[in-house]
Design goal:
This protein is an alpha/beta fold. It has helices at residues 3-10, 50-60, 63-83, 97-101, 105-116, 129-134, 136-149, 165-170, 180-183, 190-205, 218-226, 243-251, and strands at residues 16-25, 31-42, 46-48, 91-94, 123-128, 152-158, 175-178, 209-212, 231-232, 241-242. It has one domain: Alpha-Beta Barrel (TIM Barrel). The protein is globular, with a radius of gyration of 18 Å. The mean pLDDT is 95. The structure holds guanosine-5'-monophosphate (2 copies), sodium ion (NA) and manganese (II) ion (MN). This is Diguanylate cyclase (GGDEF) domain-containing protein.
Length: 254
């Protein structure tokens, strides 16, 4: 199949949807936020995994219009929940390198927030270590602009790329996300346990919150809690789910 051609049509054809994965506060056990993750439902191909089409979208530049759609979709969803009188929590978007470097992503976000009368604190962005380190100077300026708008920024996939600890100090991140690679064997592998523990301590001394990704078991959750990790995200609590299901979880006070 010519996936690129199908991907080009997908935005206009309304084939994308956002799913939401809870971020859980390890002190209260409550849902404190969500990561928004795109899903592509093609009429013939069925569900196409993001791992298959996000890299293609990045190569072809289609990530810019798709990313703009994501921003508008998440803002519209938050506004709909708010207008329905629902309790809402901050939602984080993933930004790709191309969007971050070339798109008018900041203007798109600002316009979308304004259109819906949304306070910027309801929207967060996740940037990967690799994206930030590609051009640290430019990234720092762009991130300042995000900060000026009132958005909080997470450093995604921390520990898997080449990041300089000096940059970590200089960049305005509010959260660090410990990559799943260190979480999977955290209760069996002393090296992974040591790395995760060190990331938490370092982030806290730099006044950043810590989110552990890919938490799948009670034992991993207990370990992270004992090390004072702030939030967990992972299948242990919930997979990424459609908007209605996510909202139901938030309203139940889970
Ligand atoms: O659930 P998961 O299979 O959703 O996501 C796979 C990969 O696709 C992850 O690396 C994730 O960061 C990326 N991804 C998911 N949704 C988006 C999105 O809306 N924008 C971008 N740029 N990447 C996304
Ligand atoms: O790359 P990024 O961290 O943005 O992507 C999040 C990815 O991790 C998504 O594909 C999401 O579905 C996946 N994910 C979330 N929780 C878990 C988990 O507990 N285990 C595994 N294996 N994947 C997870
Ligand atoms: Na992410
Ligand atoms: Mn990640």
């Amino acid at each position: 199949v010519d996936l690129e051609r199908l991907l080009k049509e997908a935005v206009d054809a309304g084939q994308f949807a956002m799913h939401y994965q809870p971020k859980v506060d390890l002190c209260t056990g409550q849902i404190a936020g969500a990561e928004a993750l795109i899903r592509w439902q093609h009429p013939q191909l069925g569900m196409v995994a993001p791992d298959r089409f996000i890299p293609l979208a990045e190569e072809t530049g289609l990530i810019v219009p798709i990313g703009d759609w994501v921003i508008r979709a998440v803002c519209a969803q938050l506004a709909r929940w708010r207008d329905d009188g629902q309790r809402i929590v901050p939602v984080a978007l993933n930004l790709s390198a191309l969007q971050f470097r070339e798109g008018n992503v900041l203007q798109t976000i600002a316009a979308s927030l304004k259109e819906h009368g949304l306070d910027p604190r309801w929207l967060e962005v996740e940037l990967t270590e690799t994206l930030v380190m590609y051009d640290p100077q430019a990234a720092q300026q762009t991130m300042r602009n995000f900060g000026d708008l009132g958005l909080r920024i997470s450093l995604d996939d921390f520990g898997t790329g080449y990041s300089s600890l000096a940059y970590l100090k200089r960049f305005p991140f509010q959260y660090v996300k410990i990559d799943r690679a260190f979480v999977t064997d955290i209760t069996q592998n002393p090296d992974d346990a040591a790395i995760a523990t060190a990331i938490i301590a370092m982030a806290h001394s730099l006044r950043m919150g810590v989110i552990a990704e890919g938490v799948e078991t009670e034992a991993q959750m207990q370990f992270l809690r004992s090390r004072r990790c702030d939030y967990l995200q992972g299948f242990y609590f919930s997979r990424p789910v459609p908007a209605a299901e996510f909202n139901a979880m938030v309203q139940e006070g889970r």
